[in-house]
Structure formats: C-alpha cells, structure tokens
Amino acid sequence: MSSLSGVIDDERVNAALSWGIVALVAYAAIESTLTGELLWAGLAAVTGALAALPPIRAREARTMVSWEVLALAAVPLVGRSLGVVTQAATYLAVATLALLIAVEIDSFSSAAMTPRFAIAFVVANTMAVASVWTIAQFASDALVGTSSLPGQTRLMWDLVLATAVGLGAGLLFELYFRRYGGPDRDERSRGESA
After folding, report:
1. How many CB atoms lie within 10 A of CB 138?
2. What is the rounded CA–CA span in Å between residue 194 and residue 187?
3. Which of 10, 91, 118, 176 sits CB 3.0–4.6 Å from 165 for a disulfide?
4. What are the tens digits of pLDDT across the range 98-120?
5. What's the CA angle centered on 144, arms 138 and 145, to 5 degrees?
6. How does DSSP assign 121-170, residue by residue?
7. What is the DSSP letter of 82?
C-alpha cells in the first residue's frame, strides 16, 4: 500500500474530502436555482441530502461515504454549473445518484449486496431515476412552459443511453465493492445467504 492510499483511507481525511465535495454540490444547487435550472437544482439538492444522510443518522460527521463516490456524483452537477454541459452529464448525474444510493445501502445498513445484485440494483435505479427525470421534464414543459423534452425518438434514445450509463455505474460499484467490501464482508454475505 502506498503512503497516499493510507492517507486517503483515513476516516478523518475521507470525511474532510467528502464534506468539501458536499459543499461543491451545494454550490451547484444554489447556482442552478439562481439561473432558473430548477430540475438541476433539485437533483443537486437530492444528491447533497443523500450524501449528508449517513452522518446525520449516525450523529457523527466522519460517517461519510467514500469521497471517490461523492466526487463521481458531483462531477456532472458541478460541471453543469461551470458551463460544461453535455447530454452525457445528465446520464452521469442520474447514474451516479443511483450509485450513491447503492453504496450507502451497502455501507450503512445491514443489507449485504452481492456484486451481481449490486449491478442490477444500480441499473434498475438508474432507469427509475431517468424515468422520474423525464416525468419532471414533461411536468416542467407543461406547467412552466420550458422546452426540456427534445422529442419522442430522442427521448427513447436518452432512456437507452441512461440505462447504458447505469450499467457502467453498476460495474464501477462492483469495483468499489471489491475494494471496500473486504474478505470479512464477503464471508458475511455468504453466511447470510446460506
């Protein structure tokens, strides 16, 4: 193990980096609200709230999800706030929100996920969140007069691509699971399924 990975694995350092990323997500939520991008503001607010949920429940500021997962979730949100907007940012934002949910369930609850189930969970959650995102865009277009939805064919391709990005996020979760799951967690999973 290199000296840098030892520092990063330190709980205090992880918490400091994670809270810094939560602050960036809060910035993205505020900036999106001020510029009238309410869907992005809502997505950033939900991401920040999910990131803050474990320390609030545990009443311990150091009980944070890994900074790497939060950084991945923050990239599309902060990138959009800085003007780096691509269609892939939407897919990545949706997939990383599902990934964040899966990591928090696996890390901070008694539920143990096998890698296959974790991938399926992240993909299914990505598809669900992408569908809710589409419904929110439709509601925004109908009620506020925005023009978020590009058309039916494009919408279907957006959902297909969001699913593909969800599969990629699921594979990332499997790598995360292998890195942080450890042998004792694997044994616990086998013991509970027996």
Report:
1. 13
2. 11
3. 91
4. 888 888 887 888 887 777 887 88
5. 80
6. HHHHHHHHHHHHHHHHHHHHHHHH-------HHHHHHHHHHHHHHHHHHH
7. T
